[in-house]
Amino acid sequence: MPKPKAGIIYNDIKPIACQVALDIKDKLTAHGWQVHMAEGAGGILEYSSPGSPVCHTRIEQLTPPNFDSDMAFAIILGGDGTVLCAFRQLAPCGIPALAVNTGHMGFLTEIYLNNLSQALEQLLAQDYQVEERSMLAVRVFRHETLLWEALCLNEMVLHREPLTSMCHFEIQIGRHAPVDIAADGIIISTPTGSTAYSLSSGGPVVTPEVPVLQLAPICPHSLASRALVFSDRDAVNVFPATPNRMVMVVDGNGGCYILPDDRIHIEKSKYPARFIRLQAPEFFRILREKLGWGLPHIAKPTSVELP
Predict the structure, then answer these.
(1) At 123, phi and psi to the nearest 5?
(2) Which regions of the chain carry the CATH code 3.40.50.10330?
């Protein structure tokens, strides 16, 4: 009977993540598991350039060697950036992953290192739940030729280059008529990405299970241009209605230059990110602990003394 298989994706520039990865491999191997390791850098997106516009790896080709649908689970060691990279590698195979924080904020991670021993026991006992989060498939076309594509867990950002003027964006959502937005840029995000760049740009927080996407303008020129939430069944096409070259960035990690004749197509991916949860997911608790949302006021006046 073949041995069960697990994977480890780690941030190779952090010594603690490298050491913990080796420790986990030894422990799982001692329990009779096959363990395959990969660096989070394998999920980093490449940038194209004006002289080399086609510079990308197809979505299904980012999966590391020996990672496949037979893998029971993977463990991610790093911060939020490593988690974003790892799910580009894992999602096409449907591999669920436990994210362990060895970074700073760790908004997307499930546990800290001091909880790792207990977490491994739960993994081996299959005592966990799997929460699926929507991802986006982002593709850039030039005259119907595919130039670039990537999976995206947080957001796609299209913005002007430094020192250029305000930009216009023609955006078509589903079957609806196109709209024009004048702004420094736009953000199209998943519910997971609603607590990232979109939140900083005035967008709402969306709980992960809501089947929507959102569009948030960056520094819009009009008071009427505000964040829009819409069904994730609708694909989005973005046309840069400006003569200036723009820059597209996906998950704050990589992207490409966008020229006036290009078209960006964004739709909900058929590959979700599958997060392992060791306890029932509690999104409001994470908002409170990581972002301070909903904390009670500490100082409340009990009485008012009149002069």
Answers:
(1) -60, -45
(2) 5-134+271-291
How far is residue 235's CA from residue 248's CA, in Å, rounded to a whole number?
Answer: 18
What values do phi and psi take at 218, rounded to 5?
-100, 120
pLDDT tens, residue by residue, 127-149 = 999 999 999 999 999 888 888 88
Q: Which residues are CB-contacts of 294 (< 8 A; sequence separation ≥ 6)?
A: 284, 287, 288
How much is the pTM?
Answer: 0.90
Q: DSSP secondary structure string, 265-306?
A: EEEE-S--EEEEESS---HHHHIIIII-TTPPPS---S----
CATH of domain 136-268: 2.60.200.30
5-10/136-142 β-pairing = unpaired
Determine which helix (DSSP H) or strand (DSSP E) holds 197, and give its type and residue range: helix 197-200
Asked whether residue 265 carries a pLDDT value surpassing 60, the answer given is yes
Closest to 85 (Cα-Cα) out of 71, 70, 97, 73: 97
Residues of the chain with CATH 2.60.200.30: 136-268
| Residue whose pair of structure tokens reads 């990110």 in the numeric block | 273
CA 148, 43, 3, 278 dihedral sign is negative
Provide CATH code, domain 5-134+271-291: 3.40.50.10330
Rounded alpha-carbon distances, angstroms, from residue 225 to 65, 102, 169, 220 = 45, 38, 12, 6
Q: Which two tokens stand for residue 137?
A: 């498939």
Please state, in angstroms and as integers, the Cα–Cα distance from residue 274 to each residue in 13, 89, 130, 155, following that order.
25, 12, 6, 17
Tell me the pLDDT of the chain averaged across its residues.
Answer: 90
Active-site annotation, residues: 80
Query: Which tokens belong to 274?
Result: 């599958």
